## 1
Amino acid sequence: PTAPSIMTMNGHFAGVGDAPTKEQYEHGIQVIDEDKEFNPNLNTYLQITKTAQSGFNYHLISVFGSQSTGKSTLLNHLFGTEFGVMSETDRRQTTKGIWMSKNKREGADGAQKMADNILVMDVEGTDGRERGEDQDFERKSALFALATSEVLIVNIWEHQVGLYQGANMGLLKTVFEVNLQLFLKDKQSNPRSLLFFVIRDHLGTTPLANLRNTLIADLTNIWTGLSKPAGLEKSRIEDYFDFAFAALPHKILQPDKFITEVEKLGTRFRVGHRAGREHGLDQELDGGVFLPEYHRRIPADGFSVYAEGVWDQIVNNKDLDLPTQQELLAQFRCDEISREVLEAFDVSIAPLEEKQAEGVRLGKPAVLKDLGTAGKAARVKSIKAFEVEASRYHKGVYSRKRVELEGKIDTRLKALYHGQLSAAHKSGVTSFSDAVSSAVKAGQKKGASYEFAEIVEREKKVALKQFETEARSLAIEGVPWTNFKSQYNLYEKDLDEVSGRLRKEEMRRLASRVERWVRSRLGDSVGLEFNKLGSGRGGSGAPEDGEKPATEKDLWDRIWNLFTATVKEAEIRFTERAKSFDADEDEIEVGLWRLRRKSWGVLRARIDEEVMEGNILLKLRENFEDKFRYDEGGVPRIWRPTDDIEGMYTKAKDSTLTLIPLLARFRLAETYAPPDLPDWIGNAPASVDPQDEEDLAPIGGVDEEEGKSLEEEMTILSEAKRQDLVVRFKKTADGVYVEAKRSAIGGVAQ
Ligand code: GDP
Ligand code: MG
C-alpha cells in the first residue's frame, strides 16, 4: 500500500498561470485556484493525458465533503492519483480550489475493469475553517461540479450520519438548491447525477442498510424543506438524483481491510445500465456507476472551453444557463474545428489554385489533371473530419456551421472548377476548329470529295465528349452546383458558332471553286462566239443540229444566254453543295448573289479581253477578208481585172464596219437594250454584311450609289476607241484591197 505523498507549496504544482509541462501534472491540474481563477492550461492537460481525443468516452467525478475527511486520500487510493493530502502531524488545509486528475489506474488488471478516461475533481473542503464562513465558494464549486460531473461522491464520517445539522447536510442543501436553480433553465435535457455516499470509518456495528435509511430520511427532509422555484414546487428529489452508498473501514485502525474495500469500491467505476434499476433513492450497490444518462454530453475536446464558460458565468454571479453554454461552446468549437479543417483543405487545394492562376496569367489556361478526384477527395475529407469532431456538439449549431463550412469549401472549389471548365472550353474550341480545318485540308489534298458537314459533326461529337468527360469528373453527388449543364450548353453554343464560321469559310472556298469553273466555262464559250465573228459569214456556215444559225446581230444574245445558262448551272452546283454542309437559306442566298456578281465580273473581263485592240482588229480583218476574199459558196476569189473589186471592197468594208457599233454595246437584238442586269443579279439579300463583301467590285446600274449607269456598264468600247478602231480597220482593209487590186493586175500580166 502506497502512502499518499505530502504536498508542499513550493513543490511541483501545476497551478494557474504556470507554463505546462508534463512533469508539472504529476498531481493533476488545479482547474480553479483559491482566487477563483480558471486554469487556461486545462485543455493542455486533457491533451497530455490523451483525454481530449476521447469524444464522449470519458467520465467526470467530483468529490465533496468536509475538510479533512480523507477525501483526497480516498481518491488517491481509488484512482492512483496524487492529490495532496494533509500530513498527519500538520493539520492544515491542503486542497485549494478545485483540482483535477485523470484516473491512473485505468487499464489495471481485474475482473471488473474501470471505465475509460475517468477524470476526478477534488473539490476544496467545505468547513470553511480556513476560509472563514465562505459559503460563496462552496456554492460556486457545487454549481460547477453539478454542471460538469456525472457522479458526485459525498464523503462522510460514519459518526456524522444522522447529524442533520452537520456541515455535510448544509452542503447537500446547497447542492440541491443549486441543482434546482441550474435545471430550471434546462428542462429539456434534465440530466441526472448520481450522489454516491461513501461512509468513512465504518465500524460495522450499524449495517450500511441502516445508515442508508438514515441518510435517505435526512435527504428527503432537506428536499422537503427547500423553497423551490416557481414551477418546480412539486418536483421530487429522485427527478434529479440517483443515490448509491458504500462504506469503508477505518484507514488507520484497519489498514488492510481499508485497502481491500477501496479496491472493491474501485470496481464500481464502470459504465452501468439502468436496466432493472429504479430512479432515485434505492440504487443497487453493485452496478456500474456511470449510467449514460448522467453524461453531460460535452465532447472531451470542448470540455475545457465549456468548463471555463460555465465557471465564468458562476464566478460573475450570472444565471447559469447550460443550454446557452452548450450552444456557445458548440459555436466556439465548431469554428475552431472548421478552421483546422480548412487549413488542411487549403494545403491540398492551394497548389491547384496557384497552378490554375499561373496558366491564366500566361494566357494559357491549363486543364488540371485529375482535378475532380483531388477536389472531391479534399471536400469529402474535410467535411468528414468536421463531422467526426463537430457533430458531437449542439446539433443546431453543428448543422449551421457545417453548412457554413461547405459554403467556404464550395466557394473555393467552385472557382477552381469554373476555371477548369473555362480552360477545357477554350482548349476544346481550339482543337475542334483545328481538327475540322485539318480534316478539310486533308480532304482537299486527296482531291476526293469530302463531306464538310460530316467532318463537323464528327469533330463536334469528339469535342463535346471531351468536355462532358471533364465536367462529369468534377461532379459531386448531391451537390447541385457541380451540375455543369449550363457550361456544357454554352460550350456547345460556342462550337456551333465556330462551326458557323468554318462553314462560312467553306462556303467561300466553294464559291471560289464555282467561280473558277464559271471562268473556265466562259473563257471557252465566249471565245468561241467571238471567233465566229472572224468567219464573217454571219452564220452561213453549217448550223449544228438545227440550232438557230448564229448571226452577227445576235452576238450579245448568244453571249447573254450562254452566260446565264452557265451561271444557272453554277448556281445549282453551289446550292447542292452548300446544302450538303448544312448552310442555311440565308447563307445560300448570299452565296448565289455573290456568285452572280462575280460571274458578271468574269464575263465582263472576258469580253474586255476579246475586244482588246489587237484581238478585235484581227477579228475585224478576218471578218472583212472573209467577205471580200471568199464568194457566197466560201470559195476564195481569184481576182480578175474585170471584177468589181472596188464595189466588193466597199460592200465588205461597210458590212464589217457595222460590227463596230454592234460590238461597242452589250445589247440584246430583240429589245435593242442592255439585258436587265440589276434584275438578274437581284437585290442584295438582307443578311449581306457589307463589311464582308468589300471584295466585290461595283457594277454599273446595280450599285447605283457608285455613280455608274447600266449603260456605262454595258459599254464595251468607248467612243474614242470606236473611232480609233474604225480608222485602224480601214487602214487594214485598204491594205487588203490594194493587195487584191495588185493581184488582179498581176494575174492579167501573167
Ligand atoms: P481531505 O481534506 O478530505 O482531502 O482529507 P485528507 O485526505 O487530506 O486527509 C485528512 C487526514 O485524514 C489525513 O491526516 C489522513 O491521514 C487522514 N485520513 C485519511 N483517510 C482516513 C480514514 O479513512 N480514516 C481516518 N480516521 N483518517 C483518515
Ligand atoms: Mg483534500
## 2
Amino acid sequence: PPLHRQRHQFVIDFVKRNKPLKVLDLGCGECSLLKLLKFHHGIDLLVGLDLDGAKVKKKMHALAPLSTDYLQPSYDQLRLELYQGSVTQKDARFRGFDLVTSIELIEHLTLADVERFSEVVFGHMTPLAVIVSTPNSEYNPHLPGLEGFRHSDHKFEWTRAEFKSWALKACVEFGYEVEFTGVGRAPPGLQECVGFCSQIGVFHRLGGRGGGNVSLNDGAEEVFFPYTLLYS
Ligand code: SAM
C-alpha cells in the first residue's frame, strides 16, 4: 500500500490494540484518518484540528452519519467534532484525550513552533498516548528523483537522531516515554542503515491515567478557547 495509507494503518492498528475512547487527530487535513477511525467502535469522541479550515470543510460532510449508521446499536456513542485552529495554541477544551495523533504535521512548523507544539500537546493536553510521524531524511537519497525536501512546504526533515533528540527532550520535560518505529521499509540490507521512510514516535504518559499534571488549569492560568468549531 502507498505510504500515506501505511501511516494511517499504523494508527488503526494502535487503536485496535489500545482501545482509546477519546481520539484527537492534529493536522487532520481532509479528514481521511478520521474517516477510517469512525468505523472503530469503542471510540466515543473523535476530534480533528487543522489550521486550514477550508481544507477540512472540503470533505467533512462525508463524515456525517449514514442512515445505516443509526441501525448500529452502538452508534449514538460516537461524537465527532472538527475544529479550525493551530497546534501552537492551547485550548482549554482539548484535554483528556486517550490518544493524540500527529501524522506528517510537525515538519510543516518552524522549529520555534515545534517547541510550542511540545508544550501544547505534551504539557497542556497531556493525553495518555501520542503518535507523531515525520519524514526520515536519511531515507531521502533512496527516493528516486527527489531534490531537497519531500514537499515544498516542509520547514525541515529530520534524521533519526534529530527526531530522537526532540522526542526525548519532550519526554523529560513533560513526563512521557517514547518508542521509535516507522513505516515504509527499505530493501533488506538498506533498512538497517537508513531506517523507515516515515519515522514514528509512540509516546506514553508516565504513570498512565494517574500520571497527568492536572493542576495546569486550576484557575491560576487564564482559560482560552481559540479553536473554532466547524462541524459537530
Ligand atoms: N495528517 C494528514 C494526513 O496524514 O493525511 C494531513 C497531513 S498534511 C501533510 C499537514 C496538515 O497540517 C495540513 O492539513 C496543514 O493544514 C496542517 N497544519 C499545518 N500547520 C498547522 C498548525 N499550526 N496547526 C494545525 N494544523 C496545521
## 3
Amino acid sequence: MKRTLSLLLLSALSLAAAQKVATPIAIGIAVAQTSNASLFGQEQVIGAKLAEKFLNARGGVGGTPIKLVFQDTSGDEAGAINAFQNLISKDNVVGIVGPTLSQQAFSADPIADRAKVPVIGPSNTAKGIPQIGAYISRVSAPVTAIAPNALKQALKINPKLKKVAVLYAQNDAFSTSETGIFQQTAKDLDLNIATVQKFQTTDNDFTTQVTAVLGENVDLVIISGLANDSGNLIKQLRQLGYKGLIVGGNGLNSSSMFPICGQYCDGVIVAQAYSPTQSSAANQLFAREYKAQYKKDPPQFAAQAYTGVQVFVDALKVLDRKKKIADWDLGELRVALNKQILIGKYKTPLGELSFDKDGDIVQQAFYVAQIKMKDAKNGTFVFLK
Ligand code: ILE
C-alpha cells in the first residue's frame, strides 16, 4: 500500500518535472486591469495585445504562435502575488510581463524568482527592481535615468528657477525612490528645496500640502505619485493659486490622468522613456499600427509593454532554433529563456536595447514632454527639444 502510494507520488512528480511546453506558447501578462493602477494597466494591455497580434502575424516563434494569458493584479501586493501564482502554477506560462507598480513588484517578483520563472518588468522604475533576483529584468528605465531629465528641461524653460517644493506619495515604493532622485538632482542643479511634503496615493484632499507649498513662494513644484492622486494634487495646486512650473514623475506619464486634472494638467513637464518619433524601423511599425487602431500616438506604457512581449518572443526564437519550443521541458525552458533574455540584443519600439548583468535595461535615448490640453478631458504630450 505504502509502496504503491510512493510509486504514484514518484510518477506524479516525474510527470510534473517532464511537463512539456504547451502550444500556442503561453506568456503571462500580470498588470492592473482594475483599481486606480489600471490607469496605467489599460495602456499596458493594449501594448501587449498589439505585440501578440503583430508578432504572430509575422510567424510567432518559428511558426508556433504565442498566446498571452492575462491575470489582473489590481493595484496592490496581494493582487499581484495572486496573479503571479496563477500564471506560474495554473497557466504554466514560460514567463511573465508585469506587474504594473514597483510597490507590487517587490512582493510578487520574489515568488517568480524562487520558481525560476523569468519576469520582465514593463513599468517598474524604482531603484532595486532587477536586483530582486536572477530571474527579474525590466524594460522600464529606472528613475535614476529618467527623472533628472525633467528637471534639466524645467531649467531650460526657466533658467531663473531657484526655489522648489517637492511632494511625494510616501506609501508607494516607486514614488519614494523617484523623489530621492529628484531631490538629489535639485541639489546638484543648485536649486533650493524650500519644502518637502508627503501624501498617500489614496488621498483626495491636498489642502494641507498645497497650503504649505503656497506659503513658500516657490517657482517649481516637483511631484512623485501615481495618476489619480497626482492629478488631484495638480488640480488643487492650480485652483488654490499656484502659477509656477510643475514637473511630474513617471506616475504622471499617462493621458488617463487628463480627465482628473483637466485643463490644470496643462504645462506639466514629464520625462519619457519612449518617443513616438523614435526613428527605428521597429518603432515606425509599432507606432503606425497603434495609430491606425487608436487614432493617436502610442503612450510610453503601451510601448514598454509591447517591448516586454517582444523580448520574450525574440529570445524564444533563438532557443527554438536549437530545439523546437514544444519539445522543451517547461522548467528547463524557463531557465534557458531567462539566460537568453539577458544576453540578447533587441530592436524594439524603445530603440535598440540590451540588459546589464543585473537585468536592468540598457537603453540609448530618453525624452521630455510637456502636457498640452485641448479641453477639459483631452490633451497630448508635446515632445520638447
Ligand atoms: N513607474 C511607476 C512604478 O514603477 C509607475 C508604473 C508609474 C505604472 O511603480
## 4
Amino acid sequence: LPAARDRLRVAIQKSGRLSEPARALLTSCGLSWRESRDRLFCYGESLPVDLLLVRDDDIPGLIADGVCDLGIVGRNVLAEQLLQRSNGGADKYREWRALDFGACRLDIAVPDGWEWDGPAQLRGKRIATSYPALLGAWLREQAIEAEVVPLSGSVEIAPRLGQADAICDLVSSGATLAANQLKPVLTLLKSEAVLAGPATPFSDVREELAALLLRRLDGVLRLKD
Ligand code: PRT
Ligand code: ZN
C-alpha cells in the first residue's frame, strides 16, 4: 500500500501543448505555488497541493505507482497506457474529468490518392502509429488483419518514406496531414485533456483534498460553458 501523505501531488506536462492551460486551470481553482529552482516540483502555498512537472507520457505511470495522486494528460495517452497496462487485473487509474482543452482526434489517415471505401481497405496494410495498443484493439474489434508499425515520432512522413501504407495519429487542424499528402478517413478516439486519478479512494486526508479540488474544478468548468 502506498504510504499515507497529507499533501496532494498533481502531475502536469512540463513543456508542451497542455502545460500552460493545465496550470491556468489549476490557478483558477485557487491554487498557487512556490517554485523550486529546478522547476520540476512546485510547492503548494494556498492549499497543500503540489505540482510535479513531467513528460506527459510519464503521467499515467506516476499515478499507477502512487508517486503522484492526480494528473492532467491527454485522453489519448491515458487510454493507450491503460490498454498497455491492463493484463486482466483492475485498472489503477481512470479519467476523473474531461477538461475542455487540448482537443484532438486519433485518426487513421491514408494517402490523398487512395479512393477510400472503408476499413476493409486496411487489410494487409502497414499502419504507422505512436498508439499501437489503441490501433491494435480497434483492428481486432473490426476483425482486420494489418501490420502495426510502432513509431515514437514523425509518424506523418512514414508513408512517404515507404515505412508504412497508412498512419494512425493525432490530428487537430489537419494541416500536418495535408502537408504530407494524407487525408483523414476514420476517427478512433476523440481526445482532450483530462484529469486522471486513482480508481479507488484515498485512505487519508488526500480524499478530502481531492474532493475540494474537484468541487472547485467543476465550478470553473461550468463557468466556461
Ligand atoms: O514532451 P512531452 O512528451 O511532454 O510532449 P509531447 O510532445 O508528447 O506532447 P505534445 O505537447 O505535443 O501534446 C500533448 C497532448 O496535446 C497530446 O497528447 C494530445 O492530447 C494533445 N494535442 C492536441 C495534440 C494535438 N492537439 C496535435 N495537434 N498533440 C499532438 N498534435 C500534433 C499532431 O499529431 C500533428 O503532428 O500536432 C501536429 C499538428 O496538428 P495539426 O492537425 O493541427 O496539423
Ligand atoms: Zn509525450
